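Task: complex structure prediction.
Instruction: return structure tokens for all chains below.
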Amino acid sequence: MAVLLLAEINDGHLSMDATAKAVTAAKALGDVTVLAMGAKAADAAKEAATIDGVAKVVVAEDARYGHRLAEPAAALVASLAEGYDHICAPATTDAKNILPRVAALLDVMILTDVTGVIDADTFERPIYAGNAMQTVKSKDAKKVLTIRTSTFDAAGTGGSASVEDVAAADDPALSEWVEDKLAESDRPELTSAGIVVSGGRGIGSEENFAVIEKLADKLGAAVGASRAAVDSGFAPNDWQVGQTGKVVAPDLYIAVGISGAIQHLAGMKDSKVIVAINKDEEAPIFQVADYGLVGDLFEVVPELTEKL
Amino acid sequence: MKILVPVKRVIDYNVKVRVKSDGSGVDLANVKMSMNPFDEIAVEEAIRLKEAGTAEEVIAVSIGVKQAQETLRTALAMGADRAILIVAADDVHQDIEPLAVAKLLKAVIDEEQPGLVIAGKQAIDNDLNATGQMLAALTGWAQATNANSLKVEGDHATVAREVDGGLQTIKVKLPAIVTTDLRLNEPRYASLPNIMKAKKKPLEEKTPEDYGVDVSPRLEVVKTSEPPERAAGEMVPDVDTLVAKLKEKGVV
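Output:
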């Protein structure tokens, strides 16, 4: 069995964490060939070649892959599909955009956010915002899947797979990149951070989020938010943790002023240690917390920031 | 320009889903069903484009059980002009897969020739996030998923997309497929007069056979189970105890 795995590369940089976690899931299926695609991808390809379990890296370096637009990216992946039984990628926003298009080009179904590999045809994935788990068996000749990285450990490094170039595929030229507006931050990326501090509606305002950010900065943590906090305009959407936002599984998750709606729990309940701080002792978040503290967050959080 | 909006009937997002004890799926008997929230955003965006004079007609399409009529009536009450229901299942527990849905939508597109398709980014039941991308592949059109804003200008659309870490703006050639993210708009509630009026709007019923599309599933559901539960934790009385516990665990 052979697997083609689309590496997560942004502006020429390999996202080692996401890619290495997807390799862990993929190597259970067969020999893994990593595809490094981008306007610049050679360095990322070399780095991906060091991931344990990677048999080969193929590089498609071309300006048309610079912004990971779905149409040229999917055309390339589909053009390389022959000879592979599985095509997969870490379930990032980019891969979720590209791989369903690849699957339809190959006339097969897609399986997204796979959390478990049972055998070559059978996979487990969450449905209903993680309120149920479904085991599905694919009857398709090729399986196309995205891997939910929070449930797999990263593969180690130390390997030295071969790296070779592949030709670019035809560009359908249907879309063009205009601009990226990325939030500037020195904080770690939400989905790969070891610690996440999140605020909910209880924070009360955008200004008050500073209390969350101070605690996060003290811990070197990423900042998250519940959907309620995002909808209320207290925090930007890309901080959103939950089924409709990011799914995280850090070593420590601190939920502050978050009641614990189902959709939020789906995004963080795989965290190793969960701390909940809320003034409402009945809040559902306490049911998933390892440690719960009932109190006024504006007193508790500054005290915690000071004492850690 | 016509805009096509696919809508799906799903368990209402406020309902707590229950896994059936025999592991065969999620219990849908006597459960409140509604339009998929991301599809409501899609309907709203299409209606706004019509109100702005960019589009002439908004057509809502649903694929599934006969009861999806209600979902289409909701779209009509919001302001869609007409609806097409493709009855592809008898059993409410049978989910039509995104690949089959995309094939049926492609067939509808061939007949209706819309200039734009606006779809929800994912359905909150199977959470697959695939139909829009698959439809874009089958039509050979451009795709702009997770739209945070949409502007239609002449023969192209400019879409800001929600991506990891911020927004990516792209320009796509029309016709194109756009999928909606949460912050694109806030869908309106249908007023009572509009709900009454919607009952008279045209709703055409079709079957997959009418379009020559095979909807048999590619995936076999082996079992559906409850997610693993977390063991109960403990309440701590104060910050000092919390700090001590976290140090003990070695996480800070």
